[in-house]
Predict the 3D structure of the following.
Amino acid sequence: MSDYTLDTIVGWAKRKGFVYQWSSIYWWLANAWDYWPYWSQLRKNILDARWQFFVQEQANIHWLEGAILMHPKVWEASWHVGGFNDPLVDDKKTGERFRADKLIEDRIEEQRSQRTDKEILDYYATTYQVNNLTPDSWTLEQQHAFLVGEKVKNPKSKKEADWTDVRKFSLMMSTKLWVIDSESNKVWMRPETAQAMFVNFKNVIDTTRAKLPFWLAQVGKAFRNEITPGNFLFRTREFEQMEIQMFLPSELSEEQFTTFQKMSWEFWEKRIGITPEKLRNRDHDDDELAHYCKQARDFEYKFPRGRWELQWIHDRTDFDVKAHQEYSWQNMMYSDPHTGDRFIPHVVELSMGLSRTVVTVMLDAYDEETYTDSNGKEQTRIVVRFHPSVAPVKCAILPLIKKDEKQVEIAHELFAKLTKTMTCEYDEWWAIGKRYRRQDEIGTPYCITIDHQTLDDQTVTIRDRDSMEQKRVALSEITDYIAL
């Protein structure tokens, strides 16, 4: 499968009803999106696949839905207030503002087409005294020196820039509670969902009688005041996270870490069909680890503009629960019912961005294929090869002739039957070839055509999206045949 530009994917996603720019009738807000029918169903299917794999099929795991607005002290304990920042730089010539680390990442990605990572790092280490190719772990002074020394251009104007010093920019978004507009009434829009699980750790213990080790899982909205949101849905101010926190009686072992990695590989490759050659694991260097983290491993995907993380596994140690015990003055210790030992649990985190996962699935599935038709002519079709488990539409019901009342009647009956267990579309407009192409473009695995032969022998034609092969199948055997 070939690589396609992000513009190609964005154009297709808008054209086929996956996403639209937010509040488009009032122009639109930069990099904000509304999610339409096919996106919504694709998102739901990915969530369902994750639920089944990481929750339903696992033992001793509990689901939690935390509030978006939490007590301000939560974000002090987690070090988000005052410590959750991105590096900001302005072009003095235009007044435009950018994330310095992203400008540097783009330059490094350009260099990779000409030199190896080792050659790039050797040069940067000598010139800018850095010891890795992860710019967000560099000092602000090193980032500024790089932008000036490498003469990084303004990415919008493509002209030489005059960069300011790099400085920190808070990612926290806030709102006000109560009717009086006062700074004391400010609360934070959560920048991550994880803290609700740490805050509720003891509540879960007390109400479910859960014993360590156990998991807490959550999906929810998070908000970040991104400096330069962009690149379609890779970096937005409003997004969704899928997070799992596993509470352990002791430090995370390498065996456990490897187990979580293998589970994650199986989910990406087998459950939602991501191309394994485009995935890789990357361990964080010591100087890029988050303040709460002892070790971290990312799952990265090869996107059109380089590799971005899809998921991370973080060894959070006992930092989070211990911090909330300190700030709340509440006893957060776990009492082992067998030994009587009391201790603060350690936590390992499996976190995924839901919006980015949906975009990844779309990118990975999109293809433009050249083939020879039955008349010997070369044709091109857009085909989106969604894994059947996550495809927004599982099958399309197509009566061959709209004016044939009996075909239409059978098609409606079949639609009513199949929609009890899967998402289907009914389509009776245009020639059958055009209907096939439309379903190919939205990733429908199977098209079921009711024709004249159906009236004679109660069989239908089932067309496979990927191979375009067609087979006659009895009406009574359709569900078993597609086996979604």
About this structure: The CA atoms of residues 143 and 462 lie 57 Å apart. The chain has three domains: 6-82+188-363, 97-170, 393-482. The longest strand covers residues 306-317.
